[in-house]
Amino acid sequence: MRVVYSPAHLGHDITTQTVMGVQVPANEVANRAERIRATLAADGGFVFADPTEHGDGPITAVHHPGLLKFLSEAWEEARKQRVPYDFLAPETMTHASATEGMSPRFRRESPKIEGRAGFWALDTSTYIVSGTYAAARAAVDVALTAVDLVLDGGERAAYGLCRPPGHHAARSMYGGFCYFNNAAIAAQEISRRTGEHVSILDVDYHHGNGTEQIFWRRGDVLYTSLHAHPDRQYPFVLGWEDETGEGDGVGANLNVALPAGCSNETYLVALDRALDRIADEPGSVMVVSLGFDTYGQDPIGDFALTTPVYHEVGKRAAAVGKRLVILAEGGYYIPALGENARTWLRGAEGCAYEPLPALGFSEAGSRA
Ligand SMILES: [Zn+2]
Q1: Contact partners, residue 358, CB within 8 Å, separation at least 6
Q2: Three-state SS for 156?
Q3: CB atoms within 10 A of CB 33
Q4: DSSP 20
Q5: Active site residues
Q6: Where do the domains of the chain lie?
Q7: What is the pLDDT at residue 356?
Q8: Nearest CA to 56 among 154, 180, 166?
Q9: How many Å lie between the centroid of ligand 1 and the Cα of residue 204?
Q10: CB of 215 within 8 A of CB of 187?
Q11: What superfamily in CATH does domain 2-53+134-359 come from?
Q12: What is the pLDDT of residues 46-90, one digit of tens each?
């Protein structure tokens, strides 16, 4: 399988984050993507490709131009305005209730950067650092290059090793370690170029609130997601099962909210619900938002999935018969991250399940 990767993500060098107001070591770190890259390289069955630049057009096709402008300027502005930290996070958030009952024009973007960040941010844990914008742009190009490989390159499936991830980013909002919604941008590009319906399967542990919001009123882009129930997990704001779309999008949104401790067996039943729905949808391409925070040892998840089930998930996703644009999302237990990704992708390619250590490689991707 072809894998699109860019080292630009290394400049998005995040070491701390905020959880409920407390600064803690970061989960979404550069080592995540590096572990996946090293493990796929060690496997030998994956061919790496560089992303090509696709410009602003595909980004503003799903995101507010103001979000693109803010992210492109944020770090430089933070330096100019002498923000005294090596990261930018919002101080106040432009909460909908702040201007309740007032005309929309009073919902304004302050030029002061810690206020301006709060105009666009979902949370305070998604830091902007010097290399964030370049990394987020590269992640979009990684996704779009994976689209090119499938639409023009004759590939049955391609994997975009996107970092930062994307599925929490809404049309006019960044958050949840996501800046641009790589999967939504890819799906929109597939829609534009093929004129077909597009299906999205989101198997990250968290609900992809951004992807749901972007395609909420679209009947031609189906969003399906298996995730931790929002009554106990981030993003809390969306992810309930009665969210099925509105307007032209009625019936084109399927949320399967899962309990704590979710087993392999429970997960596969839920997966089949989503895949049955996708099989009924016209269109020849499926975008997969592929996270591994569903893994049993993930530090922020609470599911109980094990490595072999990812082989089965990849296999069943491919068995629907659509071409696959597979894009990296979350997953924070780094020791198993590479092996889980490799196992999923091999399942999608129709290769047998074969643990990497059996091939003489350590989990770190080097010769044991
Ligand atoms: Zn996640």
Answers
A1: none
A2: coil
A3: 28
A4: T
A5: 168
A6: 2-53+134-359
A7: 77
A8: 180
A9: 5
A10: yes
A11: Histone deacetylase domain (3.40.800.20)
A12: 999 999 999 999 999 999 999 999 999 999 999 999 999 999 999
